[in-house]
Design brief:
The protein is mainly alpha-helical. The protein is 77% helix and 0% strand. Belongs to the binding-protein-dependent transport system permease family. HisMQ subfamily.
Length: 221
């Protein structure tokens, strides 16, 4: 019944999904943190940029962003992110698109965490002579991250599922393999069940682990 699995590299496809998820998670965490810092910062221009970026990018369909990275950045502007072959270029462009999109949700989660930190702590830090950057990195963000571990887990879970959109530009991951399998095999329901189970195996442990970590690191108020 599962003989069709011998003809396809299922583990390799899901490994591609894991790579997309991990690299995009790192990129979105870094960029999302920068955006959050902009949104709570004292410089009006940076606050305006952060607000505009989040409100615009998160309301654009992810498929449009992924297609833009391939058709717009690569084919029109010639951006290849240091790669030379088609497969690597599209993989890196997919990471870029996923990171740019997911960073908006990371930013909003972090901003909510920043708002949970008592204002008196920031005022006390400034009274000691710390700069805004020092207050943010040494006092505010460590507590904000602890407060939003579970929301960040939800963002990571959504990112894992959103990697399927990368199939639109030919990135070798689980959704693209599923498309090929359905086109060549007659077992549509079984193929869908196998791919769905694979995503459950990726997503469920993520939620459980982050939920446990979030409870352990929760800030006691």
């Amino acid at each position: 019944m599962f003989d069709f699995l011998d003809r396809y590299d299922l583990l390799g496809a899901f490994w591609g999904t894991v790579q997309l998820t991990v690299l995009s998670a790192i990129g979105s965490l870094i960029w999302g943190t920068v955006l959050a810092a902009m949104r709570v910062g004292p410089v009006p221009v940076m606050r305006g940029f952060g607000t505009a970026y989040v409100n615009i990018v998160r309301n654009i369909p992810l498929t449009v962003i992924i297609l833009f990275t391939s058709l717009g950045l690569n084919q029109t502007l010639g951006v290849n992110l240091g790669a030379s072959d088609f497969v690597t270029i599209n993989f890196r462009l997919a990471v870029l698109g996923l990171s740019a999109y997911t960073a908006t949700f990371v930013c909003e989660a972090l901003r909510a965490g920043i708002n949970t930190v008592p204002a008196g702590q920031a005022e006390a830090a400034r009274a000691l002579g710390l700069t805004f950057t020092q207050v943010l990195t040494l006092v505010i963000l460590p507590q904000a991250f602890r407060a939003v571990m579970i929301p960040l887990a939800n963002v990571l879970i959504a990112l894992t599922k959103n990697t399927t959109v990368a199939a639109a530009i030919g990135v070798a991951e689980a959704a693209l393999l599923m498309k090929k399998m359905i086109e060549n095999e007659a077992q549509f329901l079984l193929i869908s069940a196998v791919i769905g189970f694979g995503f459950v195996c990726l997503v469920l442990p993520t939620g459980l682990i982050f939920g446990w970590v979030g409870k352990k690191l929760a800030v006691k108020r």
